[in-house]
Each structure stands twice: as C-alpha cells, then as structure tokens.
Design brief:
By secondary structure, this protein is mainly alpha-helical. The protein has one domain (about 15-314): Up-down Bundle (Rhopdopsin 7-helix transmembrane proteins), CATH 1.20.1070.10. It is built from 13 helices and five strands. The chain has a three-stranded mixed sheet with strand order 4-3-5. Strands 1-2 form a two-stranded antiparallel ribbon. Helix 1 (about 25-55) packs parallel to helix 12 (about 270-295), helix 4 packs antiparallel against helix 6 and helix 12 packs across helix 13 (about 300-314). It is a multi-pass membrane protein. Odorant receptor. Keywords: Cell membrane, G-protein coupled receptor, Membrane, Olfaction, Receptor, Sensory transduction, Transducer, Transmembrane, Transmembrane helix.
C-alpha cells in the first residue's frame, strides 16, 4: 500500500523478500538461524550472570565485555525474530515506521558494539603499556563514562537516519529484497536525489566503525612495540596471550562488517543472495561467538559456566 504526502509516495507497509532465489529453502535456512540465535541468547545471558556473580571478574575488560553482551542481545532480538517469522510463516509485512525503527536499532547498536570493542582495546593497551597505572586510569567512574559516551555516540549519530528516510519520496514499490530493514536496501527504493544522505551515511560510518578500527590498530601497534621490548620470550608470549580473545572478537566483528560494506559499494556484479548472506552473518555470528571466545579462553568464565550447569542439574 502506498500513501501520498507532501514529498511524494511512501509505502505504509514494506514487504520483505527474504533471500531472493532461495524462497523455497527458507525453512531449511531458518534452522541454522534459529540455532545461532538460541546460542547467542544463552551465551550472552550466561556471560552476564557469570561476571555478575564473580567479584574477581569485575575488571574493566569484563565490564566492557558485559556491555558488549547487552548490545549483542538487543541487536539480535531486534532482527532475528522477524527474520524467523518470515522464514517460518511467510510473514513478509513490516510497517513503514517499524522498518525505520528496526534499521535505526541495527545501525545504532552496531556502532555501540564497535565502540565497546575499541574500549576493550584501550583496556589492553593500558594493561600492557601502562600496567602500574591501569587501576588509576580505568577507574569505575571512567568505565561508566566511557560506556555512556559509546552509547550516546550510537544514539546521536544515527538518530538522523530514520528522519532522512522518513521524508523521502519512494518509487511505486514496497518490496525490500532483504531479510530485514537495512539502510542500503531502503535507499534502493528511493526516487529522490540521495547524494547528500549517502554522504552523511559514509561520514557516520567513518566516524564510528572506520575510526574505531584505526584506533584499535594503533593500540595494537603500541602493544606489540611494548611486548617486543620485554626481556624474555616467555614473558612476551604470556603478555600476548592476554590479547588473544580480544583479537578474535575484533576479527569476528570487523571481517563480515567490511565484507558487507565492500560488497555494497563495489560488488555490483555479486549475486544479491551473497549480499544478503553476508549481511546476516554480520548480525548473527559476532553475538554468538563473543561469549564462546571468552568462555574458551578465560578459565574463570569457563568454570563459572560449568558451575551454572552443575547448579541447574542438581
């Protein structure tokens, strides 16, 4: 359905296609989606409970990890239930305002996720390069302040996006070739000139994920320089081992994010289903993998998880 306002046509309801060309396989595709979502929910909730119950884990790294887990829970819960509804019940309809809201949550929460990964990199930098000042630099007040700043950055910088899309004139179609309301998928339906809006989107992307990634690389360059000056190979390996989990989290988050960005900008000859699969991996895999990575690499989290299982089975 289309409505007319002062700027032109706007859909009242959008229709999500899912994965073009694979509609007949949606039920089968939904199985790994559901399992990954279930693992993400259980893993992140368990991680939050373990850190909360163990005072020895009330360190900056794990407090930032808890903030990351909260964002992951909100990110997956704002998208995956609707995707599963589409796959299971062919529930393709999503209201215009709900679509803009979902798009805002996806990009705002992804920005926060990037910010918390940067905060964790800062913690590793201070712990390795300024170990004697770690507790005096990363005080509880500083941790709370950084957390609030990261949240406010995501909220404020992404707030114009729904309004920019709300007042645009759309072509006479309401079909979104995607599994959820993504910014680039919506832009393709717009008939107005969108260069300024695309420029704003690129600037925001650089000031958030792009700048975060540059700062993370800089922090690890400084960490490596410090580690290489340590006197023994054993101490170097021991120090680097404290960064392994965080490096995996960086790779899991930024690899699909960059692939998704590059395929949208330069992969015009790539099949649409590949674009959509990469975009879904970007939403699904990091929230599932983050608690697994820290559970495997951190002994206290691993022990806390087994303790929770023992209590529940008792």
């Amino acid at each position: 359905m289309l409505t007319f306002n002062r700027t032109g046509y706007q859909p009242t309801v959008f229709l999500l296609v899912g994965i073009p060309g694979l509609e007949s396989a949606h039920i089968w595709i939904s199985i790994p989606f559901f399992l990954v979502y279930l693992l993400a929910l259980m893993g992140n909730i368990a991680l939050l409970l373990i850190v909360k119950s163990d005072p020895k884990l009330h360190e900056p790294m794990y407090l930032f990890l808890c903030m990351l887990s909260l964002v992951d829970l909100m990110l997956t819960s704002s998208t995956i239930p609707k995707i599963l509804s589409l796959f299971w019940f062919n529930d393709r309809e999503i209201y215009f305002e709900a679509c803009l809201t979902q798009m805002y949550f996806i990009h705002s929460l992804s920005t926060m996720e990037s910010g918390f990964i940067l905060a964790m990199a800062f913690d590793r930098y201070v712990a390795i390069c300024r170990p004697l000042r770690h507790s005096s630099i990363l005080t509880p007040a500083v941790i709370i302040g950084l957390g609030l700043a990261i949240v406010l950055r995501g909220v404020i910088l992404l707030s114009p996006h729904p309004f920019l899309l709300r007042w645009l004139s759309y072509c006479p179609t309401n079909i979104i070739s995607h599994t959820y309301c993504e910014f680039m998928a919506l832009i393709k339906l717009v008939c107005d000139k969108i260069k300024i809006r695309q420029a704003y989107s690129l600037i925001v992307a650089f000031l958030t994920g792009g700048l975060d990634f540059i700062l993370i690389i800089c922090s690890y360059v400084l960490i490596l320089l410090t580690v290489f000056h340590l006197p023994s190979k054993t101490s170097r390996l021991k120090t680097l081992s404290t960064c392994v989990s965080h490096v995996w989290v960086i790779l899991v988050f930024y690899t699909p994010a960059f692939f998704s960005f590059l395929t949208h900008r330069f992969g015009h000859h790539i099949a649409p289903r590949i674009h959509i699969f990469i975009a879904n991996i970007y939403l699904l895999i990091p929230p599932m993998m983050n608690p697994i990575i820290y559970g495997v690499k951190t002994k206290r989290i691993r022990e806390g998880f087994f303790k929770m299982l023992t209590i529940k089975s008792a």
